Amino acid sequence: MSGLKKGAPAKDDPKKTEEENPTEQKRSQRAASNVFAMFRPNQVQEFKEAFTMIDQNRDGVIDLEDLKDMYSNLGRIPPDSELNEMLKEAPGTLNFTTFLNLFGEKMGGTDPENTIVDAFAMFDDDGKGWLPEDYVKDLLENMGDNFTKDEIKQTWKEAPIEKGKFDYKSFTGLIKGKQSEEEIAA
């Protein structure tokens, strides 16, 4: 997990191996466990599957050649400069732990959950926890950054709507990656 091979010198003391340097080993375990704690186990599994699909040569690291192979399998061959820009988003070698960190940072880039719920609640005068579906569609089409019909259709595929009622608290949970009650019970 720390990137050191068994028997390789540890960072703190070039003469000590990872096994002989418990401080380095604990630091590595703590960093990795924090990354995995950001996601539910099923999300980690999905990320692992995605990582494996991208890591074409199965060496545990995504590099330029892996990206080239993946894109060519999809029928696209982007320039090396574009692929290198993607790789530069990683702070170092793009292994699975770094891959998870990158997604954690991207997913964490949204507003806090209570801010999102409060924004929806501004339109919920009665405090019911839901808004009429047609009203939300109208807001999305005509206020702020207007959604197109296709964008609304895409959003509605995942939106918790029942009998014309848009449950904005559950929707916020979806945005923030929270488990639904059905997933928790399963």
Top keywords for this entry?
single chain; 186 residues; mainly alpha; 3 strands; 4% strand; disordered C terminus
Description:
The chain is built from 10 helices and 3 strands; from the N terminus they run ααααααβααββαα. The chain has 186 residues and is mainly alpha-helical. The chain is elongated, with a radius of gyration of 22 Å. It starts with 21 loop residues before the first helix and ends with a helix.
Question: What's this, in brief?
Answer:
This protein is mostly helical and 186 residues long. The protein is built from 10 helices and 3 strands.
Topology (SSEs and partners):
Blueprint: H1 22-37, H2 41-54, H3 64-73, H4 80-88, H5 96-107, H6 113-121, E1 130-132, H7 133-142, H8 149-158, E2 161-162, E3 165-167, H9 168-175, H10 181-185
Antiparallel strand pairs: 1-3, 2-3
Helix pairs in contact: 6-9
Gyration radius, in Å: 22 Å
Largest sheet: 3 strands, antiparallel
Kindly report how far apart the N and C termini lie.
31 Å
Could you tell me the number of beta strands?
3
Alpha plus pi helix count: 10
- Order of H and E elements: HHHHHHEHHEEHH
| Beta-strand fraction estimate | under 5%
Strand order of the largest sheet: 1-3-2
Q: Return the average pLDDT rounded to an integer.
A: 78
Amount of helix: 55-70%
Q: Outline the low-pLDDT stretches.
A: 1-33, 180-186
Shape: elongated
Query: By helix and strand content, what is the structural category?
Result: mainly alpha
